[in-house]
Amino acid sequence: MPVVDVHTHMYPPAYMDLLRSRDTVPYVKSFPDHPSAGDRLIILPAEDTASTSRGRPIGKEYYDVKEKLAFMDTHDIDVSVISLANPWLDWLPPDSAAETARRVNDDVERMCAEHEGRLYAFGTLPLSASVEHVVEEIERLTTLPHMRGIVMGTSGLGSGLDDPALDPIYAALEKEKQLIFLHPHYGLPNAVYGERASDYGHVLPLALGFPLETTIAVTRMLLSGVWDRFPELNVLVAHSGGTLPFLAGRIESCIAHDAHLKKEGKITNRRSVWDILRKNVYLDAVIYADVGLKAAIDASGADRLMFGTDHPFFPPLDENAVEWESVTLNSKAVKSALGGNKEAADAIMGGNAARILRLPS
Amino acid sequence: MPVVDVHTHMYPPAYMDLLRSRDTVPYVKSFPDHPSAGDRLIILPAEDTASTSRGRPIGKEYYDVKEKLAFMDTHDIDVSVISLANPWLDWLPPDSAAETARRVNDDVERMCAEHEGRLYAFGTLPLSASVEHVVEEIERLTTLPHMRGIVMGTSGLGSGLDDPALDPIYAALEKEKQLIFLHPHYGLPNAVYGERASDYGHVLPLALGFPLETTIAVTRMLLSGVWDRFPELNVLVAHSGGTLPFLAGRIESCIAHDAHLKKEGKITNRRSVWDILRKNVYLDAVIYADVGLKAAIDASGADRLMFGTDHPFFPPLDENAVEWESVTLNSKAVKSALGGNKEAADAIMGGNAARILRLPS
After folding, report:
1. Which InterPro entries does this entry report, sorted A to Z (chains A, B) (predicted)?
2. CA–CA separation, B355 and A32 (whole Å)
């Protein structure tokens, strides 16, 4: 049974060129006068300080396909389904977005084709362009042999995934059987972390902001009836669903007890969050512990979970480490959550991805 | 084995008088010219509209102890450990806060004493007063025979529970072996729910805002070292910990991979979130589904979970309903999560609370 990593990011050269040409978030900056600073990647407004340690170090692991393959070999990963890291192409000027998206997606397709059988990809949509251009790119992506869906953030066209203006995009994705890999980026407003947040490094926005953002986004999709209108639309939700498996019961109860929704006739004629979790949602297994992973399995089923690493993020702090702890935490959680059920564990480690993403076996 | 409800709110008469005397959040408003509107309770700024349907209806179930006892009898609840509902006394003018807190706590103690054996309570602290006054009230509460800890929101003295100015309060609570019942109120900024949030009634702030607020608050306590300084401080976290059991692995991984924390020497010499969950945190079982409840049990242990109802919130929308679905969802989740283990289920339904809160058996 192959091991497949469905949550693993790469910046193709076409995207690196874009980042290096910029000086506002997102961008990559070099410091010729301070070579020890190395190149830095700044993708969150909160990281955008004036120092040479702004953002995070960015090396070849972000853009050199040899590094990805070496990482895969170290961790016994047979296939990676790569996606652009956040913030994708959300920030592109509208008039050039469609053309840039084609260039970036073609560059990703090239990388996959050059390493046949090892790399597949989720494409990226030019969401700042017109809806027509977005739909065109969805249709074009189906002609690229290594594309297996698209990666998308929670902003949509700018006002969230419950925006009815997204309907033509959802319709096209549903029609083309293209899965959305839904990934956070925007987090929560810094005020929620309080005045001492910087004492805690990046822990609060990364550990909590990301999954909470994701949970809100999926719940807004649910409440706006996206899955009532597009019952075959499939979404792979990052980080085991944010916190959706844990909160599904509370969400259902809050809907069932809401006087406004009752008055609007929206309580009875709707699909439940449990139904969505079991028919439309796939979850990656990027949750770093068996407690959360078991809840994800309970909510969506062991046949809907897919192993992931989040590479190249969360590298070991010990420079001599060979294996990445962020990876082994996730692979150990799969074994531990499934107890002795090797078949189910193998499915999560790769079998499910091979089936769901139509990978050659 | 008794059934004990540890998450159940009451406004004693002394608190109702306060709410009725106000016209800014929190307050209770009557509409003499529109008697059909009934009395309305407005506790969230987002609910504070100009209409006669602002906030939520408030009836005797909020303040009449007979209603609480009838609710308990209907649902076979032997003992309720009542607490003031949010926003407690956070908003009191500083100069009168200490005296008001004494009056409110004495009124709660009187209600409990008048129904010996059925009612115990968490007291409320005058957090807007000086720290000395707060500590005095903690010490005074230990002399009231039905008090079993204190209820607290996530604001603390105004800037969160990771505020070092809270240390004398934590020290007093630890010394007096008084548990904190940590409960959300402030939610998240409305912007995170997007421009269509009001279409969804109160679902997003109630279903997500509350547990996400709680998770951030507990994680800030953890990161600021509260439990390193006060290793015996116990916290009963509302709504099964917000989302803490599900996200504990991600929080631990983000800490272990944080370059800033490593530089500060804060990664190795610290207690893990798992350690806190198993030694300092208790969780209520207010999560409305077995998926979440199992994760809570996996994280903290079946001996640390305690049944709750959140009464009088989430009443049935069907006026003819006798049993409250919000209650039966939680009691069924306990049975389902524990499978056939009746002993563990009985412990969660009341045995744990009897032991942890020193209730007469």
Report:
1. ACMSD, Amidohydro-rel, Metal_Hydrolase
2. 65
End-to-end alpha carbon distance in chain A: 8
pLDDT digits (tens, 9 = 90+) for A40-77: 999 988 788 888 888 889 999 999 999 999 999 999 99
- Cα separation of A119 and A113, whole Å? 8
pLDDT of A219? 98
What secondary structure letter does DSSP report for B178?
Answer: P
CB A138 within 8 A of CB A176: yes
Searching chain A, which residue's CA lies closest to the CA of residue B225?
A: A200
A189 vs B contacts (CB less than 8 Å):
188-189, 191-192
Chain-chain contact of B252 with A288 (C-beta, under 8 angstroms)? yes
- Distance from chain centroid for Cα A312: 13
Q: What pLDDT shows up at residue A35?
A: 86
Q: Which of A194, A243, A292 is nearest residue B249 as measured by Cβ atoms?
A: A292
Q: What is the pLDDT of residue B46?
A: 78
Angle at alpha carbon of residue B309, lines to B359 and A299, rounded to 5°: 120
- C-alpha to C-alpha distances, B278 to A153, B134, B199, B275, nearest whole angstrom: 35, 28, 40, 5
For residue B311, what is the DSSP state?
B
> CA A203, A206, A211, A212 torsion: positive or negative?
positive
pLDDT tens-digit readout, A121-147:
999 999 999 999 999 999 999 999 999
pTM, entire model: 0.97
Name every chain A residue with its beta carbon within 8 A of the beta carbon of B245: 246, 291-292, 295
- Between CA B28 and CA B43 the distance in angstroms is 9
User: Which pLDDT belongs to residue A269?
Assistant: 85
Domain B4-12+62-356 architecture: Alpha-Beta Barrel (3.20)
